[in-house]
Automatic annotation (TrEMBL):
It comes from Streptomyces katrae. Keywords: Amino-acid biosynthesis, Cytoplasm, One-carbon metabolism, Pyridoxal phosphate, Transferase. It is an enzyme of class 2 (transferase). Belongs to the SHMT family. This is Serine hydroxymethyltransferase. The gene is glyA. Its cofactor is pyridoxal 5'-phosphate. (6S)-5,6,7,8-tetrahydrofolate binds at L124, G128, H129, L130, E248.
Length: 409
């Protein structure tokens, strides 16, 4: 166990209450199965950058043009993060300051839109994110969102519907991206539709960007005007966001992030993003990204054999969405029984009806070193957990995770 992944002695001595919280969470992550599609285990190097003195530094502005003194080292950190992101994604411009994926989307809208503009995005009932027009979010309040969906039978994006809605509503921007869509999006089809109606194309690649980095998913960079992403999902970096774009939008994007929507950049996070980009550029990450997808495909097939109805019949990515109804439970009940057995995941909308399903991913378990034999075992644990034998299943989950400690033994 690396020292950096445990509560430090300083914290234990000064604040045992909070040290216990961190230790409890460390054990929870190690002893249960982390199958939330949005989560992963960062490397000890990423954690070291996060828990560093860079957290002390104020740095409003951009490298070489800061509103604070003493930025020579954090400027190096940000320049390095930007250069690595540009090389990793083959893009002209990268802004690595967004505090989160949602902050990156807000900045993209701020760069390209005005309040009241019409935006076409995947409807929330079909897998759109809160920032794609939820009435509870700034997006739904400040813009006029029109939602496209997926086909009820196939679960696939209905590109003809996207085109029809684009022609009818003439949106200022089209957003492609989802929290639960398990297949690759056809970025070229979205680009054609956007061009036909004179709309910007914004790709919200929060989920697949790590697969893109590892060459295991198509890149939206050649097609979208602006790409928003997170750094903490399959990409395995610190919690945070980024915006990628061509040179023509660089200035607008930078001004949209700072000073329009954010203040001082979080330099510890930016250094940790640089570390993660460095890791993602190396061959082991390419192998990792492909293993994530192979594991998700194996798990989807095994779940289907156990009676789960897997949306779209499988997956191209790390992400699986499934309806457990044939096993006698809905999504929220399934999530509860799985949690009781030590299997952690989320619920999600299904392409038909108003019942919810389950959403899971293989990014974290693959980081732990699990492979296809373990995916078959996990599908068996899912079935056992839904049958209600929580205590026995929990012991089997602990036995499985005990063989794959996320931060070494
Ligand atoms: C995760 C996600 C986000 C938001 O990321 P946060 O860091 O939680 O704000 C935005 N869009 C999509 C499609 C996502 O999956």
């Amino acid at each position: 166990m690396s020292v950096m992944t445990q509560p430090t002695d300083a914290l234990r001595q000064q604040d045992p209450q909070m040290a216990d919280v961190l230790e409890g969470e460390r054990r929870r992550q190690a002893e249960t199965l982390q199958m939330s599609a949005a989560e992963n285990f960062t490397s000890p190097a990423v954690l070291a950058a996060l828990g560093s003195v860079l957290s002390n530094k104020y740095a409003e502005g951009y490298p070489g043009a800061r509103y604070h003194g003493g930025c020579e080292y954090v400027d190096l950190a940000e320049r390095t993060a930007v250069e690595r992101a540009r090389a990793l994604f083959g893009v002209e411009h990268a802004n690595v300051q967004p505090h989160s994926g949602s902050a990156a989307v807000l900045a993209a809208y701020a760069a390209l839109l005005r309040p009241g503009d019409t935006v076409l995005a995947m409807g929330l009932a079909h897998g759109g994110h809160l920032t794609h027009g939820s009435p509870a979010n700034f997006s739904g309040r400040w813009f006029d969102f029109v939602g496209y969906g997926v086909d009820a039978e196939s679960g696939l994006v209905d590109y003809e519907q996207v085109q029809r809605l684009a022609r009818a509503h003439r949106p200022k921007a089209i957003v492609c991206g989802s929290i639960s869509y398990p297949r690759h999006l056809e970025y070229s089809a979205f680009r054609e539709i956007a061009d036909e109606v004179g709309a910007y194309l914004i790709a919200d690649a929060a989920h697949p960007i790590g697969l893109v980095a590892g060459g295991a998913a198509p890149s939206p960079v050649p097609y979208a005007d602006v790409v928003c992403a997170t750094t903490h999902k399959v990409l395995r970096g610190p919690r945070g966001g980024m915006v990628l774009c061509g040179g023509e939008f660089a200035e607008r994007v930078d001004r949209a992030v700072f000073p329009f929507t954010q203040g001082g950049a979080q330099m510890h996070s930016i250094a940790a993003k640089a570390v993660a980009f460095g890791e993602a550029a190396a061959p082991p990450f390419t192998r990792y990204a492909h293993r994530v997808v192979a594991n998700a495909r194996a798990l989807a097939a095994a779940l289907e054999q156990r009676g789960f109805a897997v949306t779209t019949g499988g997956t191209d990515t790390h992400l699986i969405s499934a309806d457990p109804a044939a096993l006698g439970v809905d999504g929220p009940t399934a999530r509860g029984r799985l949690a009781a057995a030590g299997i952690v995941l989320d619920t999600c909308a299904l392409p038909y009806g108003d019942q919810r399903g389950i959403r899971l991913g293989t990014a974290a378990v693959t980081t732990q070193g699990m492979g296809e034999p373990e995916m078959a075992r996990i599908a068996g644990l899912f079935a056992a957990a839904l049958e209600g034998d929580a205590a026995r299943t929990r012991a089997e989950v602990a036995a499985l995770t005990g063989g794959f400690p996320p931060y070494g033994a």
